[in-house]
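One thing: could you explain this record?
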Amino acid sequence: MTTRRHFLASTSVFAASCAASAPSFASDAPVSDAELQRQMLGKLTTELNDPTTAADEAGYLLDTFFSWTPSTVDSSRIRTIVAYGFGSRAPASGTVPVPGPVNEAIADAVFRLRQTIAMPVFAQQEVATVLASKYGLTAGVTSIATPAAVAGSPIPTPDGVAAAIVRQAGSAAALGTVGIVTHADQASIAVRVSNAAGMQVAVPAGLALPSFYDTSAQQPAMRRRDLYLMSNVGMQLAMLRLDLINREYPNG
């Protein structure tokens, strides 16, 4: 799982600049989120010459750029497993994506979790396919079709799948406490969009989520970690922007 102050170091440009300018990045890192936010606020206030706006933007940036560790829940409290796919490959024929190795690893994690306690599973199509073909697990598993790709979006986000799961279940409350299983780097945004859909969700404590990338994934931004993380941040900021606009101007 990516930690907050190691995110920017994962991008090649930032890592290169750090190597050139400072021999030890870790020793210069702020010791707390509060200190990091204080430094960000000071810099943004200087750049924008607007303390009020700087305070808002620093909060948004801290929450988006430096919050990659989702909340967790003990598996004994989970009543439903929700599995989101990640990094599928292009269809061999027709329109159904090929799961690929990352979705297989997500399915493996779902199977391990379900061995601990019998609970219903809502799994994105690519993951459900592997559960059926590899483990013969179909009873209690609801397959959720992968939404069509959004034009211009570098990566798919789990919000469409989350909405479909709530519709299928009848209500978010009917799902009870939900354990999210997906790629480690997608977990934080998966928790956010699931919460936005009304679910009570967290990542199962102690469950290892896959963290590797498939260089043959259909979307280029899903093939490398640096590309995915930047795309993820862009999508989160876009979602935040729309939410803020809708809250401030509900009537347009």
User: Anything to note?
Assistant: The longest strand covers residues 177-181. Residues 1-24 have pLDDT under 50 and may be disordered. The chain has two domains: 4-65, 72-238. Residues 225-248 form the longest helix (24 residues).
